[in-house]
Each structure stands twice: as C-alpha cells, then as structure tokens.
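#onboarding

Welcome to the new folks! Below is a worked example of what a typical request in this channel looks like: someone posts a single protein sequence, and someone else replies with the predicted structure as tokens. Don't worry about understanding the tokens yet, we'll cover that in week two.

Example request:
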Amino acid sequence: MTVATAETVRSQLRASQGPRTRPRGQLLKWIGNKFRHAEIIAAHLPSQLGTYYEPFAGTAALAATLTPTAAVASDALPELVALFELVKTGPEDLLEHYQIWSEAIVERGNDAYLDVRNRFNTDRRPEDLLVLSRTCWGGVVRFTRSGTISTPLGPHRAMSSAKLAGYLVDWRARLRNVDFRCQDFAATMGLAGVGDTIYCDPPFSHGQAMLYGAHDFRLESLWEATAEAADRGARVAVSLDGSRKSGKDPITPDVPPYLFVREVLIDSGGCMLRRFRAGGQDMRLEQVSERLLLTW
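Example response:
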C-alpha cells in the first residue's frame, strides 16, 4: 500500500501533463465530495487520460481539477446534472438566483431556507439545489427515500454572491469539455474503451445510505462494470472506504482480488456525517482514511 504524501503528489504533478490543480474554490458544499483531495487523486491518474469518464460525478471536483479535453460525467440526480449544465451555459442566471435567496436566508433565517427547500422538493429547480448545498447543515444534503431533501439550515453564513461569481468563471472554463448526463453509472462506464480513464466515487458503504442514489446502490454491480471496462482496455480508479482511527467500526467492503493492481491510502480528515449525527461534538476519534484502488 502506498501512502499519499505532499512530496509524492508534487513530484507526480510535475511529471504529469498539465497542471492538474484544483479550482479556486468549492462550487458546491457537498458531503463526501473530493475537492480537498482532488489534486492527490489526479496525480495518480494517467498523464494521458484518453476520454475521461466520471460515472459518479457528484460535485465534479475531479473533472474540474483534470480539465479534460474530452469527458463524460454522469450522475443519478437529474437536478445535479442540470445544475452543471447551467454552470456551463447560464451562470449569470444561476448567480442571480443564488444572490436573491442566499441574502433572503441571511435576512429571514429559517423561514427563507424552508421556502427554498420546500420549493426544491416540489419543483426540483437546480438553482435551488445550489442554494441549499451552500446553506444547509455542513453540506450534508440528506435525501429521504421519497427523494426530498430533509437537511436543516446550517449555523454558518452563506458564501457571498461576489465570491461565487469568481468560482463560476473558473468552473465554467474547466468544465467546458465535459458532457454531463443523467444516467446509470454502468451506462457511463460502458462507453470507455482502450486508453480511456474512469474515476469512480461511489456511495461509501459506511454511513452514506442517507445520501441520494445510495439507497439501492450495490458494490457488486460496480465490480462487474469495472471488470468489463478493464477487459476493454480502460483504466479504472475507484475511491472506497478505508479505515477509521477509532477502530470501533471496521470498514471492510469486499473487493474482488483480481480487479486492482495498486492501492493508495488517502487521509480524509473527520467524518462530516458522523459530526452531523452527533450535533457537532468533538470528532477527533472519527478520522477517516479512504482507499484509491487502481486497475493498472
């Protein structure tokens, strides 16, 4: 097992083609997103990506860091896909909506927040999803089985619209070559062929059942799609549960021994989901490590 350090990341970044530096800031505040570790993960991907595929797009942090020349990123949440299409084609309208409602939440507090949350749960507007991700508790965008968001308002002040404007300019440029689609992860992985690269960030088996798309997700299906993609000549990287410092909850998802050639351990810091459930208590014993599994 390789432990990712700042020194190894810097050397690999120098050796790779392109800067592979992450965006100026995090566009969506979203539990489990890979923004903080995007540069580390990117450093372990091939210098020549071919067509890049990201079948669990989430916040698209890795795609934005790689800035690929050709890419397909998909997600099971239609509103998230629509949101990234707005980032690419209508950032001005997105920014105006955010400004109006983030300021309303600052002024009116929970009443305005519930207005946005109720409207999203009814109308499913992607603009509201951006507002909720930036104002809900800790970025824990929690979905019920019926598909509605149930997370309460967070104690923090929402990011200013002026700051978001700068982020949108950066993200729009970085995602210009990414084709966003709402489809099953297996359909996206099935497009990859010889010389292409796939990065998978599936729902983690430990504690992420409350997140959208995780209720019915099964790792066995991902392993099947990974094996098929590798047989076609694609390189597949998968982020997976690693370990917790506390040792109280061993994380041992079954990984077929024949699939992956290398494994990298990445320190991910504290677990926000556990913090959310614990009401913000001290979580030093809940430090998390993630595994990056590679088929090449």
